[in-house]
Design brief:
about 700 residues, alpha/beta, Rossmann fold, seven-stranded parallel beta sheet, six-stranded parallel beta sheet, binds adenosine-5'-diphosphate, binds magnesium ion
Amino acid sequence: MPDAPSLDLRAPIDAVPGVGPRRAAAFHALHITTVADLVRHLPMRHEFEAAESRIADTPVGVVASVRGEVSATRVSLRGKRRFEAVLMDHTGRLDVVWFNGLYLRERVQPGVVIRVQGKTGRFKGGLQMVNPRVEFLDASRDPAPGEERLRPVYPASEEVNSREIERAVARALPQALAQIDDHLPDEFRRQRELPPLRDAYRMMHAPANESEALAARRRLAYDELLLLQLGVQLKRSHQRRTQRAPALRWSPEIDRHIRERIPFTLTPSQEQVVREVAHDLQQNTPANRLIQGDVGAGKTVVALYAMLMAAASKRQAAIMAPTEILAEQHHASIARMLEGSSVRVAMLTGGASTAERADALRRAAAGEVDILVGTHALLTGEVRFRSLAVAVIDEQHRFGVHQRAALREKSDEPGTTPHVLVMTATPIPRTLSLTIFGDLDVSTIKGLPPGRIPVTTRLVGPDKREEVYAYVRERIERGEQAYIVVPAIEADSDAPEGPGRAPADLRSTMKRLEEGPLAGKRLAALHGRLKRETRENVMERFRLGKIDALVATTVIEVGVDIPNASVMIVEHAERFGLAQLHQLRGRVGRGARRSLCVLIGEPATEDAEARLQALAKATDGFVLAEKDLELRGPGELFGARQSGLAPFRVAAFPRDMDLLLMARRDAGAWIERSPALDRDDERLLRARLLRAHGQAVGLGDVA
Ligand code: ADP
Ligand code: MG
């Protein structure tokens, strides 16, 4: 097979013989535009292929691979529908049958050369194969492989099949490999028993045996993990060396002043986290800390403590929440606690009027606001602070990793970046915390504040709905308040509206409740499309006990904190995820009364059923997160999707946990030896690192 002269790795894919301009577009659609892309297009797995044998030499009862020319075909519709073909080579005849194989008749025609692989049998004295795998061969391009082998199976498309990719790779590989340099030093590599990069690519695309395929995979997975770890740690080391955060003051007096504003005593666990945070903020290296604690654990007060430390040092703080409702609540509660103090609190959300917005922006930039509460709106370009010392991201799992970086850039104080705290109620699985969040220190608030009575969770079918609401009515009459959560604001027009089927939308639910079981009670609707004043007004009246039940969408899912509300009804609970339901349940059980959470649902699948059962059984968010992981698999987990990081191509979890730990250790030691990764022999590694993660990890300023 003639290799094209000097096939450069950077050459366009059309330069590969057999691809050419005609097939190029199809390869482009698979994100293969250069020879290098082709080499990096790795097989998903390998398939065993038996050595081809001549028909006359093929025994009965084994898996065999036979090539031959189709000499006749037949469709049989009697009995089981089947498609039959006769395959000939120069030694004999093989009968092939495909049950339900009628789709093959267009392509398997007399004169066509195919290869079939399957188990041989005997039929009317001759050799037969039933339902074999079939491949269409091009005699000039597909020489017979002499021996059994592992064949790569590539991610492919309608236009380009795995076989065509395999052919292109086979043509390009010999020349491409010669140009692949290793970014790992030989000694380093040998100590870890990793093959050279060049060999790894060869063994991945064309393994001689199973163990070669494994060795290749191990090397390439390790590389992926090492690069990410190096990226994260390089960034961190760079920040530590070059970025300065304002070292905030702390004294027993400051501490006392802050605590005067907190209307309760901190739990030992909160105390511990406050100590960790206060210690961080007194340093002039920017803090980068994750505070995790279950729903209702009391994370806000830790954030408040940090923000008041900023104010005590005459600097600013900001807290960003994922929803307007939560931002409004933070704003209201912080303002309430700071009433009569000199600390100035303001709010900035997308729903603000132009004038309000302009005013908040001006005051933040002028240093006339001490604490700015907001939503994503805080991230927009015009938002500047005179001296931002503490930036808090609440419910971090609702944001991506980029937001942290964006907030960091907001201070106009020369040479400084703020301390960053991120808070989450969704525990971060270990793999994620070691990868994308690898640069965070972690504090955990364990348990819940004292006096909390565990929420009773009930899972009921729709037939119990009337009973449930009769009971809600009773509790309302005893002075309690309820949330009733529905999946949608408006009716889904396709949804069947049969008798006995309750509507899943807010509007009809309101109507049904007002006219039925909750007639005469004070109900209000709450959802994301209401005007801000309306929403704030509703929340405030609910807080003051002037509304008995709030009929809401999931806008109340995160953060909302109204202790007197003690009943949570979730309609059509099967439509919500486990983490979401746990968050919703977390809205109650915050006061002195025994709270109740009723999930009204009709789980249609086993998974949905398992999800609801898990929630009814466990109240601990960490336990539920593991359950969630088990039910959904890691790919679905928060963070993985929204993090903005490319998913791993080779590494997979939990399988590669040991490689991850090794890569993490190695990266740490490496950065310690070479904090900027700028030695001559690191040039290649650095270039590959920047290409892989420069953007996602935010290495722009490191380069
Ligand atoms: P989350 O961790 O979910 O953000 P919050 O910060 O909203 O939780 O706190 C939940 C509720 O618990 C709030 O009403 C808060 O005032 C209250 N709380 C927090 N810490 C304590 C404490 N140590 N003692 C009593 N109540 C507390
Ligand atoms: Mg919170």
